[in-house]
Amino acid sequence: MDALLQFIFSGMTVGAVYALVALGFTIIYNASDVVNFAQGEFVMLGGMITVFAHQAGMPLPLAAAMAVVAAAGGGVALNRLAIEPARSAPVVSLIIITIGASILIRGAARLIFDKQLHRLPSFSGDTPIRIMGATILPQSLWVMGGAVAVFIGLWLFFSRTLTGKAVLATANNRIAAQLVGINTRWIMTLSFGLSAAIGALAGVLVTPITLVSYDVGVALALKGFAAAMLGGMGNPRGALLGGILLGLLESMTAGYLSSQYKDAVAFIVILAVLFVMPQGIFGKKPVERV
Amino acid sequence: MLTVEGLRSRYGRIEVLHGVNLQVKPGEIVTVVGANGAGKTTLLKCLSGTQPVSGGSISFRGQSLASVPAHGRLKLGLAQSPEGRQIFSNLTVEENLRLGAFLYTDDRVAQDMGDAFAMFPVLKEKRNLPAGGLSGGQQQMLAIARALMGRPSCLLLDEPSMGLAPLLVAQIFEVVTSLRDRQVTVLLVEQNAYGALKIADRGYVMETGRITIAGPAGDLITDPRIREAYLGT
Predict the structure, then answer these.
(1) H/E element holding B207?
(2) For residue range B171-212, what is the model confidence (pLDDT) as tens digits?
(3) % of chain B surpassing 70 pLDDT
(4) Which of B45, B48, B65, B89 to mutate to test the interface with A (most CBs of A within 10 A)?
(5) For domain A2-276, is the CATH number 2.40.50?
(6) A36 HSE (CA, 13 A, CB side)
(7) How far is CA B207 from the centre of its chain?
(8) Mean pLDDT over all residues of chain B?
(9) Domain residue spans in chain A?
């Protein structure tokens, strides 16, 4: 029983990280139908920039804020320099461009920073909180709280604000969006900036627990992608649920089977989703009449 | 209100508009009729800014549109209800209408939406359903209503009768006529030459990228050349 609860806690913690990555996917996907595989790199940048700014003597909150802003700038640059010039290319080409961008960012991070593992001090100390025989780190609560806060923010953004609707409209029909006066270029800039900022926030929150190095992005992007697929691509609710579910599956596998199989879970989930329910849990079947 | 002079446009190396001249005065309903592939839709796309112009000029209310991007033209009062409706299929009917008034956040938006529902009661019934599930006629109504939400002074209508049952065609043309009372100038592009000329003040006939005949709609409808080519008599 204690063990089960412990697995649930650790599953929820990593799940929250996957959910944050998946939420980042959601925005860009909603605006452009593109799955941005450089999303994991923004998580890495969030962690790395915070670490180095903090080491340089900057207070932690300031360093974190700077990292989030810098990553958002990176997202905007990715859109302006790589996605926008290829705008008329098919979506698959754009996705491949994001993979290329992720390799570039990773390489640059290795040169600019270093190849070491880094960590940040926990925000609220390292004293584990005991709940019914299991323990949870205060930092885990920060990660989960962050995922829930970002989820609520995004959900409100897409369902309640005109700008959020404009993002959805841009993805659905770019020309029609322009005809109602939406500046679709600006919507894309906004989406990439926002998405990168969310990724960086995830990086800041999780670095005290999982550490960060220049190459943590690949695995995170893949797992976030699996989470987004599981929940239903493009749906913030799906991203949150998919992330948590994937995290729980991973920690159960590690706990009850073998931790060697842990990383296979994400891939099995991707395959299972594709075979059984390609729309994911919350994904909508496209309705279209011609 | 809208003046087009020597307009040229091309798809790649193939020029499809070879110097089109056209004028729309305030309060008019002007129609451009012609066969499939004559360049009517390309002309409207140039006017709304979604198709690049390779020569000539377009001015709207005295202002050149050359440097105004597509998304900036509605702000000047120029709206388009595009060919094939182009509604936001994954959003609800009401969200589609709200986005039509994307530029506005004042109280008139709710009022305009009320007007749209009064004009097309079926849209009110289906306001919370995804627009992609509407029938072709309902989607056309939504496309027109959405364009009107943007408070245009001039509306470009592309083939509103395409693919609709005769009863619906009559209803759509009635709506177009009623735009006159709302002080909306209309440029209507149609393959249904008879229906369009009947409600229009003036008409242009377009053939392979050129305007070949122009005149009052009443004259065109009796013009033997047009009767033979487009009206089937």
Answers:
(1) strand B202-207
(2) 999 999 999 888 999 999 998 888 999 999 999 999 999 999
(3) 99
(4) B89
(5) no
(6) 35
(7) 19
(8) 92
(9) 2-276
B219 exposed, middle or buried (CB, 10 Å; 0-12, 13-18, 19+)?
A: middle
The tokens of A76 are what?
């905007």
Of B72, B82, B103, the CB nearest to A175: B82
In the prediction, which pLDDT does B164 show?
87
A169: closest CA of chain B, how far (Å): 6
Does B195 touch chain A if contact means CB atoms closer than 8 Å? Answer: no
Amino acid found at B37 = G
Q: What angle do CA A255, A261, A266 make, to 5 degrees?
A: 100
Element (H, E) at B203: strand B202-207
**CA distances for B232 relative to B36, B194, B198, B219, angstroms:** 15, 10, 15, 17
Cα–Cα distance measured from residue B83 to residue A112, given in angstroms and rounded to the nearest whole number: 51
ipTM, 2 dp: 0.91
| Positions of chain A with pLDDT under 50 | 289-290
Q: Based on C-alpha coordinates, what's the Rg of chain B? A: 17
3-class state of residue A232 by DSSP: coil
Interface with B, mutate which of A180, A285, A290 (most B CBs under 10 A): A180
Give CA–CA dist A16/B137, Å, rounded.
46
CA dist B4 and B45 (Å) reads 13
Burial A71-96 (b: 16+ CB within 10 A, else e): bbebbbebbeebbeeeeeeeeeebee
- The predicted pLDDT at position A290 comes to 46
Domain spans in chain B, listed from the N-terminal domain onward: 2-231
Residues contacting residue A201 through CB under 8 Å, at least 6 positions apart: A20, A46, A68, A146, A150
Structure tokens at A8: 């649930």
Distances, alpha carbon A184 to alpha carbons A157, A174, B108, in Å: 17, 7, 24
Shortest Cα distance, chain A CAs vs residue B87, angstroms: 7
Rounded-to-integer distance, Cα B120 and Cα B118, Å? 6
User: With an 8 Å Cβ cutoff, are B130 and A166 in contact?
Assistant: no
Q: Give CA–CA dist A19/A227, Å, rounded.
A: 7
Which CA distances in Å does A203 have to A17, A78, A146, B155? 8, 18, 11, 49
Three-state DSSP at B150 gives: coil
How many of the other CB atoms lie within 10 Å of CB of B182? 11
Residues with Cβ within 8 Å of A204's Cβ and at least 6 positions away in sequence, in order, are A46, A47, A50, A64, A67, A68, A120
CA distance A55 to A120: 9
Q: Return the CATH superfamily for domain B2-231.
A: P-loop containing nucleotide triphosphate hydrolases (3.40.50.300)
Tens-digit pLDDT profile for residues B102-155: 999 999 999 999 999 999 999 999 999 999 999 988 999 999 999 999 999 999
